[in-house]
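Incident log, support desk, overnight shift.

02:14 A customer reports that sequence design results differ from what the structure should imply. Their input is reproduced verbatim below. On-call engineer (initials T.W.) acknowledged and began investigating.
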């Protein structure tokens, strides 16, 4: 709270005794200190975006590795089938 004295005076002018007004202003001031600022939120958003970008890169790398393994397996299977066909043709 920027102007606690002003808030205190406003509460007292509204009929709240000094002791209670001071307590209210103190509670509100402490609560206000714990609020996130725009800069806090901007930093959190930037950090989250960076985390997501890193996660996306790791996922893409894993997907590419899986595709490469699958293609290698398909190639090996094709070569094996080709070998079986050639062997079968030679036997005929």
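02:41 Re-run completed on a clean worker. Output:
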């Amino acid at each position: 709270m920027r102007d606690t004295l002003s808030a205190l005076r406003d509460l007292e002018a509204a009929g709240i005794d000094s002791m209670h007004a001071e307590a209210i202003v103190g509670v509100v001031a402490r609560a206000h200190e714990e609020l996130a600022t725009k800069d806090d939120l901007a930093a959190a958003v930037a950090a989250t975006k960076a985390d997501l970008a890193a996660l996306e890169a790791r996922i893409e790398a894993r997907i590419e590795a899986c595709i490469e393994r699958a293609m290698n397996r398909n190639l090996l299977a094709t070569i094996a089938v080709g070998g079986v066909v050639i062997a079968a043709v030679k036997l005929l």
